[in-house]
Structure formats: C-alpha cells, structure tokens
C-alpha cells in the first residue's frame, strides 16, 4: 500500500510545479469566464469547456491529500480505541470519510442555494433555461464534486478495499458521477444543487448512524431516523424532478436541440433525464427495502432461536450428611459443647 507520506509528497510536488509554471491559473481557478451585463454593472460568470478537466485533475490531488489527513490524524486514532474487526474497520473508515465529505458538501450546497435564491424562487430551476453561465461558486462546487468522486476510484486501491466491497462502492461512485456530470453538462445545475442537497443530507445521517453503531452496537436510534428520512427524500427528489423537467421545461417556448448554445430542452432529452432519475431512485428504494427485510428476518430468527432453547432443568439438591452434634468453625462439637474424642487404636 502506498504510504500517506508518499502520496502527500507527490501531490505537493505536483502543486508546487503547477504554481511555478505559467499555467498556474489553469489548474487552480475555473476557466471560461464571461462578463455578463446587469442593471447596475457587470458580473463575471463561467461556462464549461475542455479546460475544466485540468482543474478537476488538480483538485483530485488536493482531495487525495485531505483524504489522507483525515484518515491518519482522525479515523486511525479513533479506530484504535474501538478495537474493531477487519470488516468493521473497513466500513468505519468508509463512513468516517463520507461523514466529513457529506457534512461539508451539505453546508456548502445550502449556502450556495440560499445566496443564489434557488430555495426562495423554485421557478428559477427551469426559468431562463439553458443556464449556460454559472456564478463562480456554482461552477467551483461542481468541479470539486467531480474531483471528489473521481478521486474515490484510486482510493479503492490505496485503502485496500476488499474485493467483495469493490462492486458496491463502484456502483454508487458511478451513480454520483453520472448524475453530477449530467446536471453540469446539460445545464441543469440549479436543479442538480437541490437534488444533491437532499441526497447528501440523507447520506450524512446514514453514515453517522453507522459510526455510532460501531461505537456502541446497542445504539440503533439513528438508523430508525434515517429509515424514515430515506423514504421521504426519495419522494421529494422524484417530485422535484418531475415538476422541474416534466412540467417546467416542457412549458418553455425554446425547445430546439442546440448543443452549441447549451440547449437540450427536447422531449427525448427530458424523457431520458427523467428515466435516469426515476430508475436511480427506484434502485435505491429497492436496495433499501431488501436491506430492511434482511435485517428484520435476521432479528426474528434470533428471537425464535432464543425461544426454542429449553431451560436447563434444575437438579435436586443432595442432602449433606453430617455427623452427630453440631458444627462450629468446621469442627464437629458434641451435644454438650466439647469436641468428640478420637478413638485410640490398640496395637496388636
């Protein structure tokens, strides 16, 4: 396994080399800035392009460094105190990393949607489509999200994830990459922010519940709260996607397919996006129901097994034979209170 020090040294060398080069801003800052005139002055907005791949690559190295720091200075110290098994130790590291990521993403995403006014004005999710020009914080958020989920692929090797766990982790990594990249490239960034906020909030609660469970196996209250929130979140995501894509975009006059202008508002594109969102939510719900049924089955099997175990029969107490008189401090006393004399054997 590549050590954390080696990863940090390689990443820092890459960062220093890029900063000293002439193309430092190409790696650090988002590209394709455009001045958009407003009523008072001009504001700088951004659109996407091929140079975004260079910026994403840079932040993949940054994410690897942050991942190593959290693992070495926080999670490893906590796991040593818990004395977890290998399976639980792997899941603990996974949930610990995702708790940090989901918490920071929820706070950041909530700040963006509030400051941009997407929560107070739901019509802004589909009005003035296509949303080609993005504010700095919106584009930077999407670039960091793509960098994180792309960095999760080499982390499967660095963390020595078990072969049985790799398909499951690849599934949700690819699921996030497809949805985030789709919202970014199809100019559905506003809708994508709201959906990510809902999804990340639920995932944060789930991984927090797993961490508390690893600390104390009798603590399952957060799992019950997560189970209730999970179904409600699926309903909100489906409702919001149908409202924005199925009804909002369908009423916009401009419904011509024009990739150069970033317009993908056609019936076929809307159906494909809705099908993808609905299929993903149905798959997550099916996995959730399957997992809950398995846990309930295991619980009832344990309870029935406890009922079938017969109670051990009690053996009757054997009477203890005592010599005549009474006992005092382990010595047999005669009835008159004196110790019985031992009989002398006559020699033949």
UniProtKB/TrEMBL annotation:
This is Translocation associated membrane protein 2. The lineage of its organism: Eukaryota, Metazoa, Chordata, Craniata, Vertebrata. Residues 310-348 are annotated as: Disordered. It comes from the Eukaryota. The gene is TRAM2. Belongs to the TRAM family. The chain crosses the membrane at residues 56-75, 96-120, 140-158, 170-187, 225-252, 264-286. It is a multi-pass membrane protein. It holds the Pfam family TRAM_LAG1_CLN8. Signal peptide: none annotated. It comes from Suricata suricatta (Meerkat). Keywords: Membrane, Protein transport, Translocation, Transmembrane, Transmembrane helix, Transport.
């Amino acid at each position: 396994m590549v050590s954390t020090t080696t990863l940090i040294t390689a990443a820092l060398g890459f960062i220093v080399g890029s900063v000293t080069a002439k193309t430092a801003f190409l790696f650090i800052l988002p590209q394709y800035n455009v001045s958009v005139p407003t009523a008072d002055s001009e504001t700088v907005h951004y659109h996407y392009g091929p140079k975004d791949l260079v910026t994403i690559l840079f932040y993949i190295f940054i994410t690897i460094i942050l991942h190593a720091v959290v693992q070495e200075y926080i999670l490893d110290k906590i796991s040593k105190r818990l004395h977890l098994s290998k399976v639980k130790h792997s899941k603990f590291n996974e949930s610990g990393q995702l708790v940090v990521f989901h918490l920071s993403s929820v706070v950041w995403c909530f700040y963006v949607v509030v400051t941009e006014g997407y929560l107070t004005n739901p019509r802004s999710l589909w009005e003035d489509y296509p949303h080609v020009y993005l504010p700095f914080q919106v584009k930077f958020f999407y670039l960091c999200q793509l960098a994180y989920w792309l960095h999760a692929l080499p982390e499967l090797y660095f963390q020595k994830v078990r072969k049985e766990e790799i398909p499951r982790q690849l599934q949700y990594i690819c699921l996030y990459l497809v949805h985030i990249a789709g919202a970014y490239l199809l100019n559905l960034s506003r809708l994508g922010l709201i959906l990510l906020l809902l999804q990340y909030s639920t995932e944060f609660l789930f991984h927090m519940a797993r961490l508390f469970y690893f600390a104390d196996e009798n603590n399952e209250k957060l799992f019950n709260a997560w189970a209730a929130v999970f179904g409600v979140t699926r309903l909100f995501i489906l409702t919001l996607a149908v409202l924005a894509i199925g009804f909002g975009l369908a009423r916009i006059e401009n419904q011509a397919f024009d990739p150069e202008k970033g317009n993908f508002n056609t019936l076929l594109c809307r159906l494909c996006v809705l099908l993808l969102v609905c299929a993903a939510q149905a798959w997550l719900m099916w996995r959730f129901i399957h997992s809950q049924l398995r846990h309930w089955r295991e619980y009832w099997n344990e309870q029935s097994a406890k009922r079938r175990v017969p109670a051990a029969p009690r053996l009757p107490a054997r009477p203890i034979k005592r010599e005549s008189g009474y006992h005092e401090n382990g010595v047999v006393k005669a009835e008159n209170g004196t110790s019985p004399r031992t009989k002398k054997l006559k020699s033949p």
